[in-house]
Amino acid sequence: MTLNSIYADNIIKTALLEDINYLDAATDYLIDDEQENTARFLAKSDGVLCGIELALRVFEVLQPGDVKAKIFKHDGDELKNGDIIAEIKGKTKTILKGERTALNLIQHMSGVATATNRAVKLIEGTNATIADTRKTLPGLRPLQKYAVTVGGGKNHRYNLSDAAMLKDNHVDAGGGISNAVKKLKSKLGHMTKIELEVRNLDELNEAINAGVDVIMLDNMSVDMMKEAVKITGGRAILEASGGITDETIRAIAETGVDIISMGAITHSVKAFDISLKIAK
Q: Is 100 a catalytic residue?
């Protein structure tokens, strides 16, 4: 997965306008227009890097064609505390004005990649894969989903148009599982899959008989998931979701489910600690 450059630039410009508005009261009055400096991105923790090219693009947007950069670590690389990630040289005003926006982006994206990678490593050796959800920050979904892939995870549907996913409210409003699935199949094109959320084994059996493509096991116990895997017998893709933690994820993966989807890797991550320091 790669980031669309038009989308990326729009995100950067929105963030810069929010931060600078019409004036940087410190930089514009303190620093001469022609002053130049070199600055380095430094890792201050251990984890997985994501967003370095986007962060550097912030300075290009501010100072088109006149910022020089050296990249020492790339997206997906594992970082250690103290690693030099990249170095930039440009107008001092550009560096100071873009610093916070660049760090906000790279710190958040690296946090998502690091959290995803931790989950991926916890289930190594099983057949399950880690996937994200639509629990993303408004306007930042492409950045967060890109970061998930950098961390070794997979993307669930990107938006409501990608697949027909029936949750409990859809089923209750649509007249039950069988009726809802039958109605959808009569209208959906052949490229659109149907996923159905189930809460117990009775609903699982009804979902299998209705012929859905993917079944989400919502907040089920490990023992119930094991039984669900036996009952399904490969007739549908099984996705575990809800209440998954570092302590339970391994046992869930070992039940035989195909996918473990986690909202926490996008909506509850800790920003990865990175600094930008001007060389004295």
A: yes
